[in-house]
Amino acid sequence: MTSPETPEPAARPALSVVIPLFDEVDNVAPLLARVHQGLADYGGDWELICVDDGSRDGTGARLMQEAARHGPHVRVIRLRRNFGQTAAMQAGFEAARGVLIATLDGDLQNDPADIPRLVEELLARDLDLLQGWRRHRQDALVLRKVPSRIANALIGRVTGVALHDYGCSLKVYRAEVVRELTLLGEMHRFIPVWMAGVTAPSRIGETEVSHQARRFGTSKYGISRTFRVILDLLSAFFFLRFGSRPGHFFGSIGILFGTIGGAMMAWLLVVKFGQGENIGQRPLLFISILFLVAAVQFLTTGVLAELMIRTFYASSDLGHHRIRSQTDPAAAGWKTHP
After folding, report:
1. Phi, psi of 301, deg, nearest 5
2. Which residues contact residue 81 at a Cβ distance below 8 angstroms, ignoring those fewer than 6 apart?
3. Is-contact 333 72, C-beta < 8 A?
4. What is the pLDDT of residue 1?
5. What is the mean pLDDT of each run of 10 residues along the chain (338 residues)?
6. Are residues 207 and 121 in contact, defined by beta-carbon separation less than 8 angstroms?
């Protein structure tokens, strides 16, 4: 019995665990069992939201079976087709009811037992996002580790948000902050970067987590992922720096090109009227005209981009995923801490 002098520990915030899955039928049962085992001593209410991203191997049906077996705190969302991990995570975030949201992969490589520790650390450090770091990663060196290291270095260098392991899906968020994001395309790789756009980078941290080798199924990632990351990184850089003011980006290029083209034209005027030379066949004339035309195009693009971004912010938020079916949200329950 707790003595009067020893206050009972405060209940932990309600937690939603979101897991996107695609063709992971053999991992479903052991995954849900490990989540329940890892959160058995969590000091608060929690729910599990599994998002089937259009699997073709029976993952969705297996999830429904396991959800019925475990109880109403396990919710299943099935997308109509494979929209990608980003869309699956967005669907999970929209359905989550917890004050905190934890995410992890459905391949059993992340350990759900790390989640309570991450929650405690996020609260103790007063963070909005705590990113997992697979320091001792159990993956192939060439196909997984090398591309990941290249991607992490590029992201940290370009965005200024330096983390060791952007690719780790094991994260804990404050729900009110992550819901300010609308995840599109392949944004799940850059969630810490996008989070830095709505909260202070000092409120984004990382901590070491365990990592295990894949036992069932096949990985959906390879070395080709590095090239997609580079393209996504360019998009992230543009939207973070110029997402609300694209005219500054295109206008700066237009002004630069206009200045160069104008300087060339000024020099040609001096040559033409000051020295009396013929400039009609000079390559510099055509180059300067090209720079001036490009300047007008970039400036015009900047104006149009400003109009489009204002229309975007004035319009309603629209997701790019479509749900085929899901367990009844009205019947959803919590796994209550005794």
Report:
1. -60, -40
2. 54, 322
3. yes
4. 45
5. 55 92 90 94 94 91 93 94 89 94 89 94 94 73 60 67 80 91 77 82 88 65 60 72 78 92 91 82 89 93 82 59 71 78
6. yes
Strands (E), the chain: 15-21, 46-52, 74-79, 100-103, 129-133, 171-174, 204-208, 323-326
Global pTM value = 0.71
Terminal CA-CA length for the chain: 15
Spell out where 22-167 has E strands: 46-52, 74-79, 100-103, 129-133
Structure-block tokens of residue 5:
């002098």
Alpha-carbon distance values, 241 to 193, 249, 251, 261 (Å): 11, 9, 14, 27
Q: Give the contacts of 222 (CB within 8 A, at least 6 positions apart).
A: 143, 144, 147
Amino acid of residue 116: P
pLDDT at 181: 84
Cβ within 8 Å of residue 330, ≥6 positions away: none
99, 21 Cβ separation under 8 angstroms: no
What tokens appear for 323 in the block?
A: 């749900």
Report DSSP letters for 49-63, one per residue. Answer: EEEE-S-SSSHHHHH
CA distance 21 to 92: 11
User: CB neighbours of 157 closer than 8 A, spacing ≥ 6?
Assistant: none
Which pair of tokens denotes residue 276? 């009396």
